[in-house]
Amino acid sequence: MLARVVAPEGTGEEIFEPATGDLLGRAPVHTTDDLERLVAAATEAQAGWAALGHGERSARLNRIADRLDAVAEPLARLLAREQGKPLNGPNARFEVGACSSWLRATAALELQEEVVVDDGQQVSVLTYRPIGLVAAVGPWNWPLMITVWQVAPSLRMGNAVIVKPSEKTPLSVLAMLSIMAEELPEGVLGALSGGREVGASLVAHPAVRKVMFTGSTAAGRKIVEASGANLARLTLELGGNDAGIVLPDADPKAIAQDVFWGAFINTGQTCAALKRLYVHESIHDELVEALAEVARAMPMGRSLDEDSVLGPVQNSMQFDVVSGLVEDAKQRGGTIVTGGEPLTDLGPLFYPVTLVTGLHDGDRLVDEEQFGPALPIVKYSDVDEAVASANRLDVGLGASVWSSDPARAQEVADRVEAGSVWINSHGGIHPMVPFGGVKGSGYGLEFGVEGLKALGVPKVVTRRSAE
Ligand code: NAD
């Protein structure tokens, strides 16, 4: 069974299910007193946790993974109800499974000391020590997985962590954290629940040495400002507007399914989803038709319905962003190929997969992050022009190039300004492969050995070489 982490009777913030509008539960709203209590407990526990060493800490991560596997189904159902994502497809069950496999992969990483100079005069060795207290602040789209991305390497490196989940999806994260904490010394992992003010007070706390933040670019900027006071190190995974460039030699039918999921995974509410697609004019119409065929075959429905692979938009604010951008696209002469109107029969937050053609750079649906089930498809005639379009915005999380010629695809990939560029796929992540953005998408790397290093402080010891 899942541990219940809810607010005391009659208090807390009401959390409603996006698919049904039903009340799911009440989340605690923590105060600055709670923050101080958590910081004191974390500070006291951290040195002992660090002293356990990598072997024992990795063993604990593996045991946490076992515990999550044991509650995978109820956790997936809670996640589905709270976030809105369906159980099946790359959704709730997938996300919970990814949490335990990520914990195991993080436990298995090898962090070696680096001999940076050994020249006969001196030997200098670089190692990474624990930072101390990490603040982990996350969004609502992949709430469990992103929490694990932040927490697993923090713990592995010997830090204490206080997590501030999104106020839109606190219940599933708090439930997962309470299970994780059962394998950890008291105080090493804390949870602080509440809105952005609570997050702001956490990241600005003088005891915080590192902030792992995933969320909007606007909030990321505020966190950079706050770090001026405590000089916390930052890893910022912020918003994106990933471009996909389809070269003339791509095979529309062969790529349609992968392009579709690149854009519409988690019903489009994914940081590194394909958010604007540039297609060469020679295959534009064929690809649009192939994508529309895939879209029409994908069942959208309620989260606990076993047939659904697409769900509602998580919240009304995001729903308004998506529908507003599509309305704007219509007014600018965009052609709606599929979707284009809310699916009110399913519920107030359902918006269909919406493919829009006939748009250009400068149109809002192309230039602004929709973070939902609408994709602008822009026709181009010259590859240089498509690369310039991909690079013209002040974000650079991911991008993709689609082609049947690997050398040509690589050449285009090299010119695209983004932290990750995929060839013939979009958005795939791997626990060994570093991930992070450029420009307004943030800075710092997560995952793999680089991700571990980002949760430690470098320390160099230099000694004279032996005579
Ligand atoms: P958001 O920035 O509104 O909120 C994210 C979290 O930050 C929440 O927990 C919120 O309470 C907290 N917060 C807000 N203001 C804060 C402040 N000043 N100080 C401290 N904490 C603060 O983002 P969201 O709407 O939850 O998420 C959607 C956005 O996140 C999209 O732009 C998406 O692209 C981005 N995102 C990026 C990645 C990535 O890896 N780059 C992953 C997922 C989502």
UniProtKB/TrEMBL annotation:
Residues 13-455 form the Aldehyde dehydrogenase domain. The active site is at E237. PROSITE patterns: ALDEHYDE_DEHYDR_CYS (PS00070), ALDEHYDE_DEHYDR_GLU (PS00687). InterPro entries: Ald_DH/histidinol_DH, Ald_DH_C, Ald_DH_CS_CYS, Ald_DH_CS_GLU, Ald_DH_N, Aldehyde_DH_dom, LUC3-like. Pfam families: Aldedh. Keywords: Oxidoreductase. PANTHER family: ALDEHYDE DEHYDROGENASE-RELATED. Belongs to the aldehyde dehydrogenase family. This is Aldehyde dehydrogenase family protein.
